[in-house]
Known about the structure:
The protein is mostly helical. The chain has helices at 12-38, 42-52, 61-68, 72-84, 106-131, 137-145; strands at 58-60, 88-93, 96-104.
Amino acid sequence: METWGPGAGRDEVALWRQLARLTEQVNSTVGRRLTRGHGVAMSELLLLLSLTEQRDGTLRISDLVKALGANQSSVSRMVARLEEAGWVVRRSAQGDKRGVDVQVTAEGAELAGAARRTLSQALAEALDAAALNDSTASLVARLRYTPAAPTA
């Protein structure tokens, strides 16, 4: 029986390699579907989803940087591309003209909803395929069927 504690008889490097393979396989498959179907990259969709989850559809760029785990220049480039496409608008932050707010447009929210449905379906399909691959099957089983530990 396998024990699930830090350093308790499992090979952390093997688990990390499985995770890296799984991440690459899933991101590649899902990324292609999003780009072909909606003209949006995964990172851009995650930005749009972060905005649509807000009551007013707005976040400061600094909050997007934190939410996405990306650097300021990457987020600024993404915002510029999304703004050019008409999916977001930028403006000076209310109360602090040094900051920049980003707000999702109606078109951006519509795209995010459709792309989220594609993402969900593509993730399920990619994980189904990975569950049949000997190099990732056990990790997919752990992710799907082991309850997540409470975060609080």
